[in-house]
Amino acid sequence: MLLGRLIWVALGAALLVGSVQTVLLQWQATPILLAAQAFEDQTAAPVHAQAVEPLAHEDGGVERTAWTWVANVLHSFSMALLVCVVMCLWVWRRGASARPMLLGLSVAAAGWLSLHLWPSLGLPADIPGMDAARLGSRQGWWVLAAASAALACATLAFGRQPWRWLIAIAWLALPYGVGAPALQSDPLAGFGTDAQMQLRLLGEQFVAVTRWMSVSLWLSLGLSCGWLFRRWLQTPLLAMRDH
Q1: Cβ neighbours of residue 50 closer than 8 Å, sequence gap 6 or more
Q2: DSSP string covering the chain, please?
Q3: pTM of the entire structure?
Q4: Sign of the CA dihedral 33, 56, 72, 98?
Q5: pLDDT tens per residue, the chain (243 residues)?
């Protein structure tokens, strides 16, 4: 019974959050990606902005948008399940003292720190065409950064010892002590001067957009999960806990 409610709450939040993310993606991120893709086959050849604009509007259509929406809903569903499970653990431990809306936002903030901000400080989002360090090295370091940030948040949330802050700081410092993998050369060295300038600008815009979209993702997850949790999960969870 409780598991079914948990899944329905996560699905309801995912439908809302995934729809919002699809609109933001089409509005802000897609034009940057399509503009950057125009340079992928033009290494070492100067390309002017006039050649990019028509391509920025290609490959659109209902089918592409529909599959983007499906992907965003599935991703949001997995993140909503994560948020709701952590909220359930907190309420099970602390009881009725937890405020669902504040709790949802707090868990979402921890998710944003762990799954976006902390890894992205060492490995910012890349646009198409940029060289990067070996994929396996980047994936391994991303997992380390995300896990370290999650452990830091869990230490602060569930620990009681006064020195838990030192442990959390140590967890946060661990991936940066190891060091994020990086190229020793310019990732845009293979492009002409004009293309490099435009790609650097697109790259800066893309990093800003991905950070804003991650904030909107986790903020909307925190609000929707908090509201749905209060309506459908908190009461039966407390009843099971006190039984």
Answers
A1: none
A2: -HHHHHHHHHHHHHHHHHHHHHHHIIIIIHHHHHHHHTTTT-TTS---HHHHTGGGG-S-SHHHHHHHHHHHHHHHHHHHHHHHHHHHHHHHHHGGG--HHHHHHHHHHHHHIIIIIHHHHHS----TT---S-HHHHHHHHHHHHHHHHHHHHHHHH--STTHHHHHHHHHHHHHHH-----SS-TTTTS-HHHHHHHHHHHHHHHHHHHHHHHHHHHHHHHHHHHHHHHHTHHHHHHHHH-
A3: 0.87
A4: positive
A5: 789 999 999 999 999 999 999 999 999 998 998 888 777 665 544 444 434 444 344 445 789 899 999 999 999 999 999 999 999 999 998 886 678 999 999 999 999 999 999 999 999 988 876 778 899 999 999 999 999 999 999 999 988 888 999 999 999 999 999 999 988 777 777 777 788 888 889 999 999 999 999 999 999 999 999 999 999 999 999 999 887
CA angle 108, 112, 114 (to 5 degrees): 115
Amino acid identity of 105?
L
As given in the structure block, the two tokens for residue 83 are: 């948020």
Question: CA 89 from chain center: how many Å?
Answer: 22
Tell me the Cα Rg of the chain: 21
Cα gap 14→69, rounded to integer Å: 11
Structural tokens at position 19 = 């729809």
Residue identified by tokens 């020195």 is 163
Question: Which phi and psi angles does 9 have, rounded to 5°?
Answer: -65, -45
